[in-house]
Amino acid sequence: MHSQPLNAADFDVLEDTLLTYGDDHSVLNTSELDGFFTALVSSPTQVDIADWFPAIWGGQNPNWEDPEEAKRFIELSVRHFNTLARQLAEDSKAFAPRFEESEHQGQTVTLAEEWCFGYSRGVTLAQWPDMPQIQAGLLETIFELAEQETFELPEDFDVPAYQKKVALVAPAARALHDYWLSQR
Questions:
Q1: Where are the domains of the chain?
Q2: What whole-number distance in Å separates Cα of residue 133 and Cα of residue 137?
Q3: How far, in Å, are 48, 111, 112 from residue 146 at the CA level?
Q4: What is the spatial distance between Cα 117 and Cα 72, in angstroms, rounded to a whole number?
Q5: Which top-level group of life is the source organism from (predicted)?
Q6: CA distance 77 to 72
Q7: Residues 55/121, Cβ–Cβ less than 8 Å
Q8: Hey, which CATH number is domain 8-183, 3.50.50.60, 1.20.1250.10, 3.40.50.970, 1.20.120.740?
Q9: Nearest to 74 by CA among 92, 54, 89, 90
Q10: What integer pLDDT is reported at residue 2 of this predicted model?
Q11: Which of 78, 61, 59 is nearest to 10 (CA)?
Q12: pTM of the predicted model, to two decimals?
């Protein structure tokens, strides 16, 4: 059971816990957590749970109301972390970022900002070194979307152009994982 990918109810538990204990400095949702973990499992060096777990909370662990709640969050986080690591190592083509969606003028828009922001947090925590130009460009594809504000989309928001950028994120993440894997 501990090696099984998370289901919708598991992600709901993670989401609820992040909302309950999070603040402006912490990971705020499962999309951002997914991006954070993707960067960590793709990293050129291993990042220990003792480092990444407090980073979820902005550097300070929450004051848990119930130790079982903390245990459950850690177990689900580790399962998701391991699922991403296994998937990217064994079948990276099946990897799909956990993006959010929104409605804009009657269209469903896939939003990558929070996932990309989580990814950038993971890159920073793992202290990725400089990379060759191609890989640096792939990372910039992700970082650019991390900085694009999508909380409220302007009326003239160019959905097709944005979706083209979003479509580049998963291939970039896969390629960065593969690059670092080949360097280990």
A1: 8-183
A2: 6
A3: 24, 10, 7
A4: 25
A5: Bacteria
A6: 8
A7: yes
A8: 1.20.120.740
A9: 54
A10: 61
A11: 78
A12: 0.94
Query: Which amino acid would we find at residue 67?
Result: P
Helix (H) or strand (E) holding 110: strand 107-111
Amino acid 1: pLDDT = 47
Lowest-confidence pick of 75-89, 90-104, 127-141: 90-104
**Long-range Cβ contacts of 96-104 (<8 Å, 24+ apart):** 96/170, 97/31, 97/34, 97/35, 97/38, 97/169, 97/170, 97/173, 98/11, 98/30, 98/31, 98/34, 98/35, 99/31, 99/166, 100/29, 100/31, 102/150, 102/153, 104/153, 104/157, 104/159
Report how far residue 29's alpha carbon sits from residue 19's, in angstroms, rounded to the nearest whole number.
Answer: 7
Amino acid at 163: Q
pLDDT per position as a tens digit, 138-174: 999 999 999 877 667 778 888 889 999 999 999 999 9
- Residues in the chain, how many? 184
pLDDT of residue 110: 92
Instruction: Judge contact between 3 and 82, C-beta under 8 A.
Output: yes
